[in-house]
Known about the structure:
By secondary structure, this protein is α+β, with helices and mostly antiparallel strands. Helices cover 28% and strands 28% of the residues. The protein has helices spanning 52-63, 65-68, 83-93, 106-110, 148-160, and strands at residues 15-22, 25-32, 41-45, 74-79, 99-101, 114-115, 119-120, 123-127, 133-138. It has a 7-stranded mixed beta sheet, with helices on one face. Strands 6-7 form a two-stranded antiparallel ribbon. α3 (83-93) links the parallel β4 (74-79) and β5 (99-101). The protein is globular.
Amino acid sequence: MGRSPAVGQVVDDFRLPGGELTGDEFVRTEYSLGGHRGCPVVLAFYPGDNTPVCTTQLCSYSDGLESLGAGGAKVWGISPQSVDSHEDFARSRGLRLPLLADTDRAVARAFGITAPLIGLRRAVFIIAPDGTLHWKHVTAVGATFPPADTITEELARLGAS
């Protein structure tokens, strides 16, 4: 497992395939962290589609998108499943945030969150508009996650700095 970036450190760019449920259509595209410089990006890494804790986490973030995105922030869910799996997950739960497919776990490794058995640790990273890491929460076991309100508060701190 690699090392997780430190707060204040510039985060390396990455590109991943993914999609977002917009109305009844699941729009597939490639997502680039570097392509979103100028606005905050929340990266919510989760171990798997349609698992109990992951479903609760992603549903809470999807339900909280209005407050999470108030400052122009983008919120992306990232897991090792395929884009097809993400489409099924988004449709079955009505998720309205982009879900990105890190099938080879290269991005999870770059963030230092790969783990035996579960593939990756549940983690949330907030990337500042300048590309530096503003805040992170990495779980040891993976059964907990920061609530949308906590992430919204961190995004507000970022906007105030």
